[in-house]
Amino acid sequence: MDVGGNGGGLIVNKQRAMLPNKSRGEFVRNQRKDSEGFSESPDLEFEYADTDKWSAELSELYSYTEGPEFLLNRKCFEEEFRTHVSDKKWTELDVAQHRAHAMRLLDGLEVITREKRLKVSRAILYMVQGTFAECSSEAEVQHWMRYNIFLLLDVGTFTALVELLNMEVDNSAACSSAVRKPAISLADSTDLRVLLNIMYLMVVTIQQEDPADSPDWRATRETFKTELGSPLYNNEPISVMLFGMVTKFCSGHAPHFPMKKVLMLLWKSILFTLGGFEQLQNIKVSKREELRLPPLPEDSIRVIRSMRAASPPASASDLIEQQQKRARREHKSLIKQDNLDAFNEKDPYKSDDPREDEDDNDDNDNSMEAEPFPMERDEVMPPPILHPPSERVNFPKGLPWAPKVREKDIEHFLESSRSKFIGYTLGNDTDTVVGLPRPIHESIRTLKQHKYISIAEIQIAKEDEFQKTPLSGGEEDVEMCSTELLYQGILPSLPQYMIALLKILLAAAPTSKAKTDSINILADVLPEEMPTTVLQSMKLGVDVNRHKEIIVKAISAILLLLLKHFKLNHVYQFEYMAQHLVFANCIPLILKFFNQNIISYITAKNSISVLDFPYCVVHELPELTAESLEAGDNNQFCWRNLFSCINLLRILNKLTKWKHSRTMMLVVFKSAPILKRALKVKQAMMQLYVLKLLKVQTKYLGRQWRKSNMKTMSAIYQKVRHRLNDDWAYGNDLDARPWDFQAEECALRANIERFNSRRYDNNQRNPDFLPVDNCLQSVLGQRVDLPEDFQMNYDLWLEREVFSKPISWEELLQ
After folding, report:
1. In whole angstroms, how far apart are CA 375 and each of 343, 346, 560, 569?
2. Of the candidates 583, 592, 584, 591, which has an alpha carbon nearest to the alpha carbon of residue 513?
3. In terms of pLDDT, which residue wins out, 768 or 730?
4. Alpha-carbon Rg of the chain, whole angstroms?
5. Residue 263 to residue 501: CA distance in whole angstroms
6. Three-state SS for 483?
């Protein structure tokens, strides 16, 4: 944990007290050197997107341990190719010859022998990798990748691969063998890895749009996108099959599954079929138009991209040095005693107890900027500092977000105004203003101008109507889009899927200790023979850390995409998934993830660029040394780690927004100091989501916390959207009621279960609401299949049930 963390100030102050005077200055100078990178770091030039660059996404598929397999794939392809074409290279053939060879390889996938099938799979993988041996540059490799992948898709390779993957997943012999093994390595998952590599490269490459694509390729892309999201493969979307692999792995029945590749393919399949953040924004705009709601006040993606980062929090060592400078200046300038008294009066909250000083330092070290006292400079009343005009231009005019108001907020405001001025209330009436003073009229007008009705509110109101009037409400028109099909596919096992994803996230988090790893996520990175030299050990260490980072990136993206798409499709689908994430301890897990030196995580250099695909197959590899591995690349930050952090913060925001009980969980788990440390990262989007999480809990953190963190409060005011009438900075909130987690979650759960049973559970429908056939002819005309023993004893039945019983015809006719 870094020094700026919770309790950091206390430790540093105790260390200062124990140091001799001479070495104390050296200690502080060294601390200052260590912390300069944090408190004076430049803005990170990071642009948030659905994915990293295409080349980066390709390279992350392979672990460095898989390096030798590139040449093995090439060998398998060339052996197969030379039996049919002996005098030409692949790049010299025409389209018809390319297609003929692709068909031959596809036929080879149907052989019974596993070894032959694996050879053909490797040959196809080499094609998908761009037949790199015949290319001289990375751009050429990527060109042939696109060409070969569209060719293979056109001849039907993807469907064959899905069938093979299904067969490998159900391979009980491989599963039982892996369960018995004490240590699982790369060799145990060879067949699965080859298949998943091909499928991932196909999905990622076809998803990548290029202006130079032919109309045929564009049509192929749309067809493939539709097929991938439809229940064509094994009567379920491919994402559901991959979710099944995740749960099977976490249950311990298939420890050899290459989980990183499964998760990456799952993420890219969801991204391709459902759409990324730009598509989400477009869907939201069109849905609001359909529901005749006012347009969105702004494009959130554009607003966030135009934001600038705030100054990061000062570290504890910075504050110590400020105190030392202040003390030195006081001695040097021989300030009069009355001035010293005036200085002490400047800080009304300063006490004589040194322990309280230490606590104050702990609180202050995380504020957005270190606020200097007047006496920190040589004069008591310094002249005003003239800022150059260039600085002033950079500040945005006005606040970045248009304020919003909910209908509920207007109701609360009117109720409190009526009870105050008139002495009665009118329930849900937001129009009657009789008897209220004119300023209240103007306030209501302003509130209504900024009223925002969300799609979720309309969906909840419609669902309530369906529940109240099941007969007269009519049939609901459910659009069978990709999101709806995916939800229907994962609905039966959604709780297990969420638990499995969070288990893997916990195992991949850098804060996890070895003893808490209940599952082994390194099955597809560890070699058969463990390293014997220091250099090999260093390389494997980098590979393992990179492997974990990629898993965190994939899981965070999967969860965020699903939450956002489900919320747009129907809010109760989102609430169902969110509630199961909360029940599976997602909130404390994300807080645990951030309870680390987040700057170190974001600037981590766990990559060896010369071993990344496609660089490693085109260029001559230089000799690796321990120094080059330690140096890493020259990037200012690690894109995937910053992307993961922002995704996890967004997930935390989604889970806690408008949920009082979950907000209180943030308070109970002491998230404020953890989140404030994350503000050290000078990236506007990350800071925005941290500030949002701090804003929702500010009213519960107490007056002293707010007093000590005024810079953080100012940053919240500047960057986070305002909700009119929201007393977020004070304790006067109508929702600040006792924490009743169970009641709130149970009410929500009841609504979700009613929605799921009404829309998806055909067996549980109330028989009283089912249609009844009242026509005598159609009822009597129905053919009824009677059992054999009844037909044999039909005469006895007639005698006992009909002839022997008296019939009162008068009663029957009446």
Report:
1. 6, 9, 48, 58
2. 592
3. 730
4. 33
5. 9
6. helix
Residue 236's DSSP bridge partners are 233
At residue 744 the predicted structure's pLDDT band, cuts being 50, 70 and 90, is confident
- For residue 719, pLDDT beyond 60: yes
* pLDDT, tens digit (0-9, with 9 covering 90-100), for 188-226: 889 999 999 999 999 999 999 888 889 999 999 999 999
Q: Of 636, 597, 629, which is closest to residue 510 (Cα–Cα)?
A: 597
- φ, ψ (nearest 5 deg) of residue 335: -70, 145
- Please tell me the total number of residues recorded for the chain in this structure: 814
Report the alpha-carbon distance of residue 276 to residue 267 in Å, rounded.
11
HSE-CB of 761 using CA atoms within 13 angstroms: 13
Contact 576, 756 (CB under 8 A): yes
Residue showing tokens 């200012």: 636
SS (H, E, C) 607-670: CCHHHCCCHHHHCCCCCCCHHHHHHCCCCCCCHHHHHHHHHHHHHHHHHHCCCHHHHHHHHHCC
By mean pLDDT, which of 48-52, 297-301, 483-487, 703-707 is the weakest?
297-301
**In the chain, % of residues over pLDDT 70:** 81
Shortest CA distance to 366 belongs to which of 551, 598, 24?
598
Question: Residue 481: which residues within 8 A CB-CB, separation 6 or more?
Answer: 569
Tens-digit pLDDT profile for residues 614-657 = 888 888 888 888 887 776 677 889 999 999 999 999 999 999 99
- The conformation of residue 396, written as its DSSP 8-state character, comes to P
Please give the Cα distance from 641 to 643 (Å, whole number).
Answer: 5
Stretch 95-117: mean pLDDT, rounded? 91
Residue type for position 449:
Q
Q: How far apart are CA 702 and CA 144, in angstroms?
A: 62
Q: What is the pLDDT of residue 765?
A: 60
Q: What does the DSSP assignment read for 39-102?
A: HTPPPP-----SSS-HHHHHHTTS-GGGTTHHHHHHHHHHHHHHTT-SSS-GGGS-HHHHHHHH
- Helix, strand, or coil (residue 451): strand
Determine which helix (DSSP H) or strand (DSSP E) holds 676, and give its type and residue range. Answer: helix 671-678
User: How does DSSP assign 747-760, residue by residue?
Assistant: HHHHHHHHHHHHHH
Query: Which amino acid belongs to residue 232?
Result: L
Residue with tokens 């912390």: 35
CA dihedral (341, 342, 343, 344) positive or negative: positive
Give pLDDT tens digits for 226-247.
999 988 777 889 999 999 999 9
Joined tokens for residue 607? 């990559």
Angstrom CA distances, 331 to 28, 324, 328, 341, stand at 19, 11, 5, 15
CA distance 779 to 738: 59
From residue 123, give the alpha-carbon distance in Å to each of 81, 90, 102, 152, 245. 9, 12, 10, 12, 25
Q: How far is CA 130 from the centre of its chain?
A: 31
pLDDT > 90? residue 384: no
Which among 578, 741, 758, 588 has a CA at the least distance from the CA of 657? 578
Please state, in angstroms and rounded to a whole number, the distance separating the CA atoms of residues 417 and 698.
Answer: 25
Burial environment of residue 101 by CB neighbours within 10 A (0 to 12, 13 to 18, 19 or more): buried
Spatial separation of the C-alpha atoms in residues 92 and 95, rounded to whole Å:
10
For residues 662 and 582, is the Cβ–Cβ distance under 8 A? Answer: yes
Q: What are phi and psi of 404, to 5 degrees?
A: -125, 155
Average pLDDT, the chain: 82
Angle 81-613-528 (CA atoms, 0-180°, nearest 5)?
85
Which residues does 208 contact at the CB level (< 8 Å), separation at least 6? 54, 146
pTM, two decimals, is 0.82
Longest CA pairwise span in the chain (Å): 124
